[in-house]
Every structure is written in C-alpha cells, then in structure tokens.
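Entry type: protein chain
Record version: 2
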Amino acid sequence: MREDTREFIGEPCRVIGVLDDGAASLSETALRHLAQAEWVIGGTRTLQLLAGHIAPGAQQRDLTGALSKVPGWVRSAQEAGQRCVVLATGDPLCHGIAAYLASRLCIEALDVLPNLSTIQLACARLGLPWQDMRIASIHSHDAGEWVPGSDPLHGLYALLRDVRSHDRLAVLTSPVNSPDRVARMLLAEGLGDAFQLAVAERLCQPDERVVADLSAADAARSTFAEPNVLLLWRHSPRVRPVLFGLPDASFEQRHPDKGLITKNEVRAVSLARMQLRADSLVWDIGAGSGSVGLEAARLCHEGHVHAIEKNEDDAAIAQRNRQAMGLSNHTLVHGKAPAGLEAWPDPDAVFIGGSGGELAELITLILARLKPGGWLVMNFVTIENLGAAIDALKTAGATWDVLQLQASRSKPILHMHRMAAENPVWIVCAQATGSA
C-alpha cells in the first residue's frame, strides 16, 4: 500500500537502469542526470561501477541490505530540493526497485529511465523470443533447498507453481537461490526430464558466458558465476489434466480394505458446495486417500490445500497420489486434528471427511477460523456422527443444511445390467452466522 499520497511538487527522483558494463550502458540523458545528482542511491557494485561519473560532493547511500530505507532517503533529498538518482539493474520496472518505490511514494515523485533487462539480453544471446516467457524472480532471501510438499512460505514455492503452469520461463536468480538449486527442485518434483535449461552468466562483462543445452541433472551439480539469469523451456508442451470429476480409479486406495475414498459423485457435490475460487485456501481434515483435497488443489491453482490424516498408511497413499498428479500446492501432514491447525492460515473452505471423536471441537474451531463467506463441508455415513455435527452447529449458531446423497451405478448381470446402490452419505454444509 502506498505510504505517501501527498501531491508532489518539484523535480522527480530519477530511477536509472544500469547494466554491468556501467557507463557504457547509459544514455547521455542518464549520464547527465547522474552527474548532476546531489544524492546517489544504489547497490555496492553499481556505485563502484559508476564512481567516476558521480559528482565529488554528492551524498551516496548504499541500498544493499537497506531497501526499506530508500523511500526515506528519496524524501529527504526532495524535501531539501536536491536532485536525487536511484541506480537500479536493467529495467527497474521488471522485478526491480521502481515498483517498490512507486508503492511508497506518489508516482509523480519518480522518473524511470529503463535499460535493457538482463532477461532480454540472455534471450538475445540464445536467439530466443521472450514475449511469451513467464518472468519469475527468486532474487530475495535464502529460500533453502526445496522439500516436496512445502507450503507457500517457502521461497521457491511461487517459482514451482510457475514451472508447472508455463512452458517457457526466465528466472532472475541470486547467489543463494541459484540455478543449481532450481535444478534440484525440478528433480525432486519429477520434472527433471521435462525441461532444457540455459544459464547466462555475468552479462555485459568481459568474462560473460552463456551455458546452453543443460539438463536438470547437469545443472544440479554445477556452479555458475554471479550474477546470472536462468532460462527454462519444455521439451514438449504440458499435459492438460482433467481438473474436476476424476474417476475413483485415478487414486491409489488402501488395500486390502480398498474404499477409503470419497466416491466420485459425493466428491463432486462436496467440491461444488465448497464454492472454491482459483486462489482459495483449503483445509482437508481426515484426508484419507486425498481425493477431495487433491481435486481442490487442481481447481485452486493459485491457492493451496493443507491436509491432515491420522492413519500413517493413508497419509503415505495420499502423498503418492499427490506426486502422481504432479501437484505442488498441496501440503499433507500425518497427524490428528485439531493438533497443529493453529499454525495453518485461515481457510476459505474446509472439508471434513473423517474425525477421531473431536467433531464438536473441530466444528467450533473451524467456524471461528473461516474467512467471511467461507464454507465448511462435512461427509458422514453414520447417524451418530450426523447427529453430533448438527448439535455442534446448533450450539455454535451456524447456518447449515443437510443433503442425503445415494448414487446407484449400473453393473452387468448376465447379458443385461442392474443398478447397484452405493452407501448413502450425508453432506452437511455450514457457515458461521453472518458470514454469507
């Protein structure tokens, strides 16, 4: 959110894009603004590159590790009526500092002088068109190595979502979030054979190097000079999976007592009643084989599903189903709800497919945590659990309704067919009072 919306009067701060060949990358206009600046703000390396073009009396501020101070420095210069320049890398409006400053200063306070982006340069070196590339940045704090099933707090989570959703990507890396780390993430997620990689190192410097035709396995055990840009493109187009209504046979289920799965018809109605959106955050409690949560994850491709299952074997099956479906926006823990739910973010929708006797406590907790307009959907096959749920909803003053669903499926009998009934299921849907 913009911190300062006051009308700006005076000379704007020039945000100048710089490449690693320093002054050679700048226009005469940019060099003139730099030479006349009384405040020059930039990273350590950029200030050193352009040291000979900064006026001797200019105040210099190093923004390395001090990004939050930059808006205040710009304000101080402008309030004193002094010319100010911020030195950025490449195009300051492509994952750069200009957008950050614009969100904290009135837009009239800035004048952006863009340069070529390092992504443009990397693509030019390889002759790759870049207009349809997904541009991503992991140029931030140390994200750590990727662990399958990590939640959105992991620094590589957004990149993996982009990798699953696009055929061609350009990634702005950092010394810690490096191309080899990204390659190891691809291998961990079973995507190692899907992509070809290239790394453009130290662009516009004398020791520039472009390493092309890399496999993920090659890149994972290599090191690359900084700074660099990572390019990825698929060997073949992505498979377009079915998002909704998967047959029960699509999911691995427990053996020999096969059947711990929310059946297709019940799953479809339950997901419909959850009122999911592309960015919904979902809880799946008593995940079983994971069928409801995994279909929810496919529907909520910009959101995330947090699932919990108390049975160790079922939790392992759900994890294998997640891996088989190639989903990264689904995190499952082996545990017994409500333990651990306090650490989960507030949900847009919750599905309860099973509970271990804590049903009333779970319902009370969920109704208190649901976001406005959110839905709690529960499946029951026993009269006792249905009664316990309704009692808890009445006590909580929730708005609720019950649907009994009993499907029959055709089965062959001799040269004809008969209808075989599935067990009836009660679908209970609820909202906290006043949330609709």
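Comment: The first helix runs from residue 28 to 36.
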